[in-house]
Specification:
Layout: H1 2-8, H2 10-28, H3 46-49, H4 56-63, H5 67-98, H6 102-113, H7 120-131, H8 136-143, H9 155-183, H10 187-195, H11 200-224, H12 232-238, H13 244-247, H14 250-259, H15 263-292
Helix pairs in contact: 4-15, 5-9, 5-11, 6-9, 7-12, 9-11, 11-15, 14-15
Length: about 300
């Protein structure tokens, strides 16, 4: 039976092969290096020759004075992003769904969708120039009689910019997913609700959002897995030592540990980050199935 199915879908399996090879080479094979987290790693001895040290690297990690600070920053930025990245695309999708002029709707959708495909290396350069002390925004403030603002050196402004630009970069892409789910809603439901006297807001609340619930839950579960990542690419390219108190997250701190040749400590932190991320995904999936129905989870 398997041979028949394999022959029937042989072309599909061949298309899947490059993706499988990509994950095997760049995701699974490198996982063997995680053994460094449990070793007193020395470059001269290599991974195999370095002596085992058990959980000593994790103890050193937890004892580090900066560890609590970076965990706090990671959680604060992550949960702020998680809230806005979840809510804003839903609002955007609902608004686009109400637009009746097709050309206008497609134009707005395209404009909000494009930022997703631009690297944070490029976007960070643009935002650093825009919000810089000598940037166009501060020039406008000075020209109107105000004092220049250190957007990228102020704790409050830096976190605000990180959250706002992160939402701007992802909102359009995520909204497309919600729009696809909305397009699958039976139009007869809206007709029936209209006959019963429901206005547009009531139809949105009781029909559209109700139908979007499974998609929202899945997107939330997937987002929770990246809570300890906090948008590393974005922050790494935009932060500076003056905002370490609020902008230094676990990923950026571990990169600096790696640059300081603390390979074992960096590996221990990376492993901890991955394990906690997997735990949060499993926990969120379990809670979703318990409170929203068994069909609501990813598995």
């Amino acid at each position: 039976m398997m041979n028949i199915k394999y022959k029937k879908y042989k072309g599909a399996y061949l298309l899947l092969l490059p993706a499988l090879l990509f994950f095997i080479i760049f995701s699974y094979i490198p996982m063997s290096g995680l053994v460094i987290a449990f070793k007193d790693f020395r470059l001269g001895l290599g991974i195999v020759g370095s002596p085992w040290c058990g959980l000593e690297n994790f103890q050193v990690l937890f004892a580090n004075a900066n560890f609590i600070r970076v965990i706090r920053n990671t959680l604060v930025i992550s949960f702020l992003k998680l809230f806005f990245v979840l809510v804003v695309p839903i609002i955007l999708a609902l608004m686009l769904n109400e637009v009746r002029l097709s050309a206008f709707r497609k134009g707005i959708q395209t404009l909000t969708f494009i930022p997703h495909f631009i690297s944070w290396v490029i976007l960070s350069g643009i935002f650093l120039m825009l919000f810089g002390i000598d940037g166009p925004l501060n020039n406008l403030i000075v020209s109107t009689g105000g004092e220049p603002i250190g957007f990228m050196t102020s704790d409050v402004w830096f976190v605000t910019i990180i959250i706002a630009t992160g939402v701007w970069q992802t909102a359009g892409y995520t909204a497309v997913i919600y729009l696809a789910a909305i397009s699958g809603i039976n139009p007869n439901l809206y007709d029936a609700a209209s006959v019963d006297g429901a206005n547009r807001w009531q139809q949105t609340w009781y029909i559209t959002l109700k139908a979007l619930q499974p998609t929202i839950i899945i997107m939330f579960i997937l987002s929770v897995g990246g809570v300890l990542n906090s948008g590393f690419d974005q922050i790494f390219n935009m932060y500076n030592p003056q905002v370490y108190d609020v902008g230094d997250i676990l990923g950026t701190w571990l990169i600096r540990r790696f640059e300081a040749l603390d390979f074992a400590g960096a590996a221990a932190g990376g492993l901890l980050q991955s394990v906690l991320g997997m735990f949060l995904v499993c926990l969120t999936n379990s809670l979703a199935k318990r409170f929203a129905g068994k069909e609501s989870g990813l598995w």
